[in-house]
Amino acid sequence: MAHSYKLRYFNLQGRAELARLVFAAAGVEYEDVRYEFADWPKHKASTPFGQIPVLEVDGKPLAQSNAIARYLAREFGLAGKTAWDQGQVDMLVETMMDIGAPVPKIRQCTDEDEKAKLKKSFAEEHLPHYMEAIQKILEENCEGKGFLVGDELTLADLAFMCGQDWLKLAMDNPLEKYPKLQKFVDRIAAIPKIAEWLKKRPETEL
Amino acid sequence: MMPNYKLKYFNFRGRAELARLVFAVAEVEYEDIRFAVEDWPKIKPTTPFGQAPVLEVDGKPLAQSSAIARYLGKEYGLAGKTNWEQAQVDMIMDTMEDILTPMRAIHFCKDEQQKAELQKKYQEETLPNYLKGLETFLCGNNGGDGYFVGSELTLADLTFMHYTGQVEVFVPNPLAKFPKLQALRERVEELPKIAAWIAKRPKTLR
Question: How many contacts does A have with B, using Cβ atoms within 8 A?
Fold first, then answer.
């Protein structure tokens, strides 16, 4: 029997977008609940830890964005085919979090000189070794013509594609020096069910 | 045939301890490599993303502490018995990470007054709110007298035990007002294989 899914978050991509991409790639229906900031306080108490996103599966709650994304990926065959592949997928999803970690500080910085310094450091020191490592992983897997792990789409590919929007808050074109990675992201975004979601999803600030 | 495992990290508990705890509970042999801080620069380029810990399984590398813990957890029956249980375990693990992250930021804060204010807010609001959520979650399973998820020990309990120890480096007696959580911590620490590991592991500050 099909499960009923309700995903609760703000009206943003943010920490819910990876789960939404999994639903889209899997072609699975769900209720995409989006709160305005003003309404959030009255829903807070009905979450496990006072945070969103929360996924409700047949009414049972699951919190934490990556726990949600991994759960859905496993349900719909997007988590990696073997235990080792799943480990590699997890590694790449966690690494995307590390890559994006300096972004909030850059966004919140109000001193223009300091902000410029942080952005420079992000682009020239922080980003390159990660992107080079991921490009190498892609090249060594199916000669870079396929996916990051194994021979089918996984959460790792979705997380890498989805993560680019977050990185763009700290620099204009994160993949400028990595054409193979840009081609890869374009390829993922062009997968029909994903392209359809990208076209129809609400336009939001983040 | 048992895989050959090498776990590479600094001589701390830190981000490798969860993997070490899984090995201890599963009674699986591994090489517990601990390198000196001054040796790190020459080891760094040999890792997937310039970070430690790294787990090598028959020579193949897996990075990211939680990816490593989840991989080993799944191999040795500590990850949760169903997909839903695995997701609940993930949720607790990620929540423990959320508890620790602000503590690290406070630790590195250079302004003494700001540091004191942040520490006060963390100790009086942030931490208790999370712990309340965890105690409520625990009590929803067997009245809170067993484990976080299901009827057996999982990564959720190990992560809780280990991370509480990390919080304790900064906040004395964090579980004082949460009797069920305190009892769970003691219960886990007293499991024979874990007690044996705690007794014999190298004594390090964190």
Answer: 85
Contact between A62 and A55 (Cβ < 8 Å): yes
CA distances from A193 to A20, A26, A69, A153 (A): 12, 8, 17, 12
B81-100 b/e (C-beta count within 10 Å ≥ 16 → b):
eeebbbbbbbbbbbbbbebe
Residue A170 has pLDDT above 90, yes or no: yes
The tokens for A106 are 């850059």
Confidence grade of residue A142 (pLDDT, cut at 50, 70, 90): confident
- Give this prediction's pTM: 0.94
Q: What pLDDT is stored for residue B206 in this prediction?
A: 82
- The amino acid at residue A206 is L
ipTM: 0.93
Burial status of residue A100 (CB atoms within 10 A of its CB: 0-12, 13-18, 19 or more): middle
Chain A residues touching B70 at Cβ < 8 A: 86-87, 90
Shortest alpha-carbon distance between residue B201 and chain A (Å): 26
pLDDT > 70? residue A1: no
Contact A63/B at CB under 8 A: yes
Which positions of chain B have pLDDT values less than 50? none
> Between chains, do B90 and A64 touch, taking CB under 8 Å as contact?
yes
Q: List the one residue out of B138, B147, B163, B149 whose CA is nearest residue B66.
A: B163
Give the ranges where B11-50 is alpha helix by DSSP (H): 17-26, 40-43
Residue B86 is given by DSSP the state: H
Reported as type and span, the H/E element at residue A35 is strand A31-35
With 0-12 CB in 10 A as exposed, 13-18 as middle and 19+ as buried, what is A6?
A: middle
Nearest to B94 among A64, A88, A130 (CB): A64
Question: Does A75 sit within 8 Å of B88, measured CB to CB?
Answer: no
Q: Which residues from B are below 8 Å from A when comparing CB atoms? A: 48-51, 57, 60, 62-64, 66-68, 70-71, 74-75, 83-84, 86-88, 90-91, 93-95, 98, 129-130, 133, 137
What beta strand segments (E) does chain B contain?
5-10, 31-35, 54-57, 60-63
